Amino acid sequence: MVNRKELDPEKSPEAAFGQVLRSLRDEHGWTQEQLGDRLGCTGAHISAVENGRRPATHQFAKRADRVFGTDGRLERQSQAARYTALLEGLPEYLRQEARAAEIRLYEVGVIPGLLQTSAYAAAIEDQEVRRGAATPEQADERVALIEKRQATLMRTPPPLILVVLDESCLRRPVGGLTVMRPQLTRLLEFAELPNTSMQVAPFTMAERRPYSLPITILTLPDRSLMAYSQSSQRGHLERDGDAVLPMLAAYHQLQVGALSHDASVAMIQKLRKGTP
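The structure assignment produced for this chain is given below.
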């Protein structure tokens, strides 16, 4: 075929998905336009997905599975591609989070994903779309991923979840009052659960705060430790238990300096009422 671009499935997860999509299309003898008609999109969109220029959304992959009769194969591959395309270390972290016996979170600036309402998560992602840092499809998938992560916590027995929020998480008005009030309510509901602890690290901790970036420490069912931390550009998963132990000690120091559970709940209640 003239000007048919060679695909390199090793280039990226998106390219690997595109190569499979093209192979299936070739097997059926369809043009890109013909496949697009069946999937409810344009031939140009099919070309972009096949060439790895545009990631396949969850809905696109589900429709393609129905059209090709591939029994969820494309949906699973698109999910793997999206997870692999996330920050380094995060895909493996998500797998371990789903089975951890204990989860210790420290967050700065924003409510952590495991505690976000859908409206709060959507407000953050909408801004990413406005800045051009994400497509609307990617934003929708990120919000859906947060919901899936939260669903994994509803298991038996549930994990012990210890959360320390920097005061900035509570005072940053993401989405305005219509979003923040339900979000603060969600935090209060979380704090009432028998398997949780909620603390706020107040601004007055200043330099005594041992972490300057968010961090998560997992205790797995076999009591091994794993830590995940990230900046805006990259993430790092630490699997060496000996390296995680000092992080765990620092987390304990953070808890000692933070407000108690009851004092933290009282602060959140005041903020929800609009009291400084």
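Interim note for the steering committee: The two ends are 68 Å apart (CA to CA). The chain has a mean pLDDT of 89.
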